[in-house]
Fold this protein.
Amino acid sequence: MISVQSLTKQFGTQTAVDALSFEIPAGQIVGFLGPNGAGKSTTLKMLTGMIEPTSGTATVAGCDLRTQLLEVKRRVGFVPDSGAVFESLTGLEYLEMVAALYAIPQDAALARIRQFIAFFDLSFATLTDKLLGAYSKGMRRKVVITAALLHNPPVVFFDEPLDGLDANAAVGFKTLIQTLAKEGKTIVYSSHILDVVERVCDRVIIIDKGKLLLDGRPDVLVAEHQAGTLEHLFTTITGGAELEQRAADFAKTFRP
Amino acid sequence: MNPAPKPVRTPAQTLRHLFLTLFLRGRSARGLQKSGVPQSVVKKLAFTLLFYGLFGLFALFFVRQSVFAMSLYLHGMTLVFLGMFIASSAGEVLFNQQEADILLHRPVEPKALLWAKIAVLVQVSLWLAGAFNLVGFIAGRYALGGSWVYPPAHVLSTGMEALFCTGSVVLGYQLCLRWFGREKLDGLMTTFQVIMAIMVVAGGQIIPQILRRFGPEGHFTGDAWWMVLVPPAWFAGFDDALAGDRSLRSWELAALGVTVTATILWVAFGKLANSYVSGLQTLGEAGPARPAARAAERVRQRWLGRVIDAPPLSWWLRDSVARASFKLTLAYLLRDRDMKLRVYPGLAPMLVMPFIMIMQGYGHHSQHGQNGPDISGFGIAFAGAYLGLIPMLALGMTQFSQHWQAADLFRAAPLAGPASLYHGARRAVLLLLVLPLVAVFALCVWLLGGDMASHSLLLLPGLIVVPLYALIPSLGGRAIPLSQPTESAKSAGRGLRMFGVMFASMALAGMASFTWAKGWFWPFLGVETVVTGALYVLLRMSLNSARWPSME
């Protein structure tokens, strides 16, 4: 469903993503991990057609990223970590606008939106009466997730999707994406909350400084590296192993 | 029978609808209930159009002038209004950074985005131009040499001017993007907007002066060579060619207007449309800054740090809180796009007016005796008093920020009240804005030489009240910099206060020039210093004892 070969992005002299290659079949949930500045968001933006790769190729949902950009965009959903929305629109106006961009008839869009409202426990009145600028962070995130899934895309990219969601909504969301994957959708899930990734994802890809470090099932990788947890494995291979000791040492400086 | 399904809007229609809605609601709509929004938008729009329409009534003063003079006034002011509107809106409409995350992964051609945005800008421009010219459409018919052809001719030329204006601004942005790339785009767009806004505001002040100076008794024509450099003259030539005296010169100006407008539209919307596509993509790229840019920023910060740490600034900023606030305000005045777009164009009329007053005085001075109550004296005194308003206006604007919620930090800090924060912000404004301007004005007056230079002392009454005016924005518990949402930046109360102080400045200038002419200037200056000093001490004591205003 997603095939990436030697995908590279350079900003001036700095290489943000360095010849990244991987394949993701349909129905898989892949955790896309890396420390800050590793090139995760840049990769996701390239795979959703938001920015142009410097070199390399990729196909998403069977469409070539370079030659069939609009087709790629029709087939993907994306939840950016910024959670950006047009704050001067109501939630309903925003979702109707998104539906129109995917040519979803208005009645069908409204029916679909109602299903999402019910799922996320939102009130229809809130969606119609309040502008997005006045929404709480969690409510706004629910609208952004709805906007990404409204057109029923076969491939969905999530960048920190749980940011701002309350515990109940987060649980519901995790179940939702697992079920979507069982239905055949490909999910790429980028997050820093590693215990969630470990529980939800079938596979993890870890990158650092734009390069691929590890790729495999989380339990297998953890066992291979005798790390105990994915979090421990992550900190070990991304150079954060001494973090605990450093944190303990630093805490001592607070002593009166 | 089921009702027919609603037709799906095309992406182009959806985008036009989206950008028009966003534009009309604007930032001020954020946080409102929707029930309040349509009313507020309709009201705002209706008031804006009404205001433009009322302003258009001034066209009646030109009924006894030639068609060319009336059209030049109408097109000049239309260009000012549209230029101001487009310069302040186009950057946000064309290059909204957040928009990349919302729209660039959707199946939309970036070219369709550009066209939808341009359509909205042109549409709103035409509304505004139509409202302002409503009276002019009819009044032109009755100008000297006017005919029934004037209304349709002026409709055409006004539409062309709206396209010229939109095209020019869009072209400016496209060129910035093409020549300077992503890294400098944001800063350049801000600078471009600020310069555009300053130019149109200055133009708005200067055009009536030009008409008054060069066009007495309705004989104002487009014959002067420099008319080819003045875009409103091209469109006035268009009106004159079709509905006025139909001279060869008018046809030349009209042809120039049509050619330039067509060329700009072709380049901006046709040739350079692809730059916009890449521009939107590059705005979505979060690449690191170039080493050279980082180095330049480091050098600037180091230089600024040294200036602040060295006397006399280190003496002036002994209090650590005032010092921190000084640095914060300085950073926002130099770096923050939103702040720069509000402060510098907002100050532009303040900068232009004193120059006009000085130049007027300069032109008329020879008609009056050196010892009589001459107009040049009032001009300089008024320029000084006007300069005094700058810190007040600037400090009023530095209270507002898009990042106002971050100002909660100040309340969380162990500070009894906001006084030190305000003192820091006040000093930043005085140093960055007022001091250079005073130097420039003093230099101008000195360069004009002769009697003008001897009158430069008349700047003093205005300058003496600067510290007092700079404390006024802190009244009413509004002394915390960057702590108010930008949506609340405009209020009738602020406007009223500004009007009051402007009135006081005029009175001060009047008294200064009167006492100068009568030979009582120095005693007057003494009294003014004592009164201002007393008021300053009172205001400062009140500010220093102020506690945090309620957050409710």
